[in-house]
Specification:
Length: 343
Amino acid sequence: MSDRLVMACQACFMVLLTGGVARAADKIDVVHLKNGDRITCEIKNLDKGLLEVSTDPAGKLSIHWGDVASLESPREFEIEEESGTRTYGSLAASPADSMIVSFKDGSTTTLPMIQVIRLAPIGASIWSRMDGSVDSGFSFTQANVETHLTLNAAATYRGPRNQLSVTLSSQLTTREDTDRQLRSTLTLTGIRAQADRWFRTAFGQFQQNDELALELRTVAGGGLGRDIVQTNHRQWSTFAGVVYTHEQFTGEEPDNSAEAAVGGTLDFFTPGHENFDITSRLVSYTNISGRKRIRLELQSAWSQEFLSDFYWSFNGFDSYDSSPPDENKTNDFGVSFTIGWKF
């Protein structure tokens, strides 16, 4: 069962990473920087305080949003503010620290630059609306021929009002005197934005953990959430919903249950000129259809860019089960150091 899960994860990410790249748009956008520089480019997107642009002589550039004075473009954009309000229009020449959005009827509106947290061209290709990352780590101990291999990967598509993401986390440990230990989690999430920073979400998850004798856990469900805080430096969100869970432990009969899911995400990123990201996600699952049971899933990561598109990451995870099958462990946790690439 675990081998099939790993093969499915690998196939999923091969599709994401080998997707076709659309032809680059003409360089008709202009970015004015606060130091007086002017960059003619193609604006790709703004997210997590970084403005991604493409230029002919320098290729892709990442510009800190705090360094941008104003933007100009005849193309239409989707613009999101901290309040969750979305505006659609082209970008007219404007004074520093402001953004003038022009509508098709000839009217305009002015937005403070500091309030804008996301920006994406309308009609952009699927590939250009995607971003993601892949990182891995490896360690080896000669005394007992023990190896540890870690793989993390993520990809996100952002469209008007919708966001789709897939994440993979896998840790493999082998020793010459014992069986291998594999832990893998594949998560798929869909989000539909609503008014006033509320959102609807649907998600599915596949887990396998040899350490906990878990052959396969399948989770599917949905709920309602809200972005409590969203700025160019941090994003805090929470959600609650109901999921259906199917589990198969080694030597046990399959189990099906309904669970109440409550969780949250804390994300701190790019303060000042340091490209780092601290993310923590905690979800609790409470059984509402059978025996008294609570599960907790925690994933955290501190990543920092050290070269264009390359980063190091310190990762941690913890899985807790208050009522596992007899003689199985209640807790599994670990940490890893990885090197990765973002796209």
